[in-house]
Amino acid sequence: MKLTFPTTDAQLMHVASRSESHRHDKAQGDFRRAFTYFAVESEPRPSQLRPELRGLAAFELTAPSPGKWDVCKGPEDLGRFLIDESKRRAPYRATVARAGRTTTMRRVDNHPLAIMTVSLHPAANDCIAAKIRRDGLRAGQASLNQIVCRFVPAAERAVAGRRYVIAAAAHTDTDDLHVDLVLARNNGEPGGRLGGGLSTVGPWTVGARRQMIVGAKIGTEKLRMVTQNLNRFWDKYGASAVALDVRLADAMDAAATEVLGEELKEFKQSWVLWIPEAEKGHLLAALREIDSAREKCLKSLGAEAREAYFRELDNTGQGPAIDPVSGAQRGAAVVRLPKPAQAVVIIHTPVTTTMPLAPAPAFCPSYEPLV
Q1: Which of 249, 254, 172 is nearest to 203 (CA)?
Q2: 258 is a domain residue
Q3: Does some domain include residue 43?
Q4: Could you give the C-alpha distances from 364 to 195, 233, 239, in angstroms and in order?
Q5: Dist. CA 281–CA 125, nearest whole Å
Q6: Cα–Cα distance between 177 and 52 in angstroms, integer?
Q7: pLDDT digits over 118-132, tens only?
Q8: What is the pLDDT of residues 305-362, one digit of tens each?
Q9: Which of 287, 254, 265 is nearest to 354 (CA)?
Q10: Structurally, how many domains does the chain consist of?
Q11: Tens of pLDDT along 18-76?
């Protein structure tokens, strides 16, 4: 027995057991229950470590009124400002029709503020880290401050008519410098509520797009996924639409280019060479995780089931595999072993050091940076 609170149309449609929605959900649940899952430790992924950046000073800016920016002095000032602004900007007046007449009613926005995180370009992070090693923290801090000060006005222009930018916080406690923008739909005054969605494509697509813009070679599957995501966005918003997170990333990249100048080009070239190696490292880590899950699965089956599995592998004549219990080398394949009302899927994929790469495609006008 359980109590649930449906919040979507699909959840409400699920209540009727004869509905297509219910049948679909039931099929999905049956499919998930037909497999046994094994937890494995995540393999380390390639990443760019920049410990120098953690020595930079974080800072926050607030805009109590449009175009007027103040620097927060205390570490809790921004939080208190946002709490006050959230309460002030939550109520608004909405126009409604009542008994054939138009009137206004007081409404309350349950989510008056939104936070958009915008990271610096990886090459810009590398450039600032190198500047710190060469010239000290003060030089790196000056570059970060100038980039943020150029980025914030560009961000205001990018969201104009859809949101108000009321605060910005520069974060320096990771290996990737980034800025949190605080956006509000309402300005707390009559008629000051803005409409429209934020129309984003998501951080993964923004990051992959950055790789493609500099001409990096990426995996064919990643290229397919980026193309699919962008096509879905254009199908929804129009072929000439540019996602808000893309606009903000371009604004950040333009600010970094303006501040770091020619020095940034060298680090972009190095980043282009690093990307294929990182792609390969991610693939190899995923394959090691699959092998680890396969070993756990085989150990849980018992000797008889393992022998059935390896007899099937011997028939296929595919690549080498090691019995994790006996240590014997056998063939490898993807096979299902029946269990009571279940099936166990055992996967072994030979680790390879080659991966298909695709050159960056020619960009249509919607790819071009817009600031």
Answers
A1: 249
A2: yes
A3: no
A4: 29, 14, 10
A5: 21
A6: 11
A7: 999 999 999 999 999
A8: 666 666 655 555 444 444 444 444 443 333 333 333 333 343 333 333 333 333 333 3
A9: 287
A10: 1
A11: 888 888 888 888 877 776 666 777 777 788 889 999 999 999 999 977 778 889 999 99
pTM check: above 0.85:
no
Q: Is 308 exposed, middle or buried (0-12, 13-18, 19+ CB in 10 A)?
A: middle
Which tokens go with 43? 């393999």
CA–CA distance, 137 with 128 (Å, rounded to integer):
9
Residue 122 lies in a domain: yes
Closest CA to 94 of 196, 193, 197, 198: 193
Dist. CA 332–CA 25, nearest whole Å: 34
Distance CA 102, CA 214 (A): 53
The answer to whether the CB of 267 falls within 8 A of the CB of 274 is no
Apex 71 CA angle, 123 and 157, nearest 5 = 60
| 331, two tokens | 């063939």
Q: Can you read off the two tokens belonging to residue 122?
A: 């990886």
User: What is the residue range of 158's domain?
Assistant: 51-214+237-269
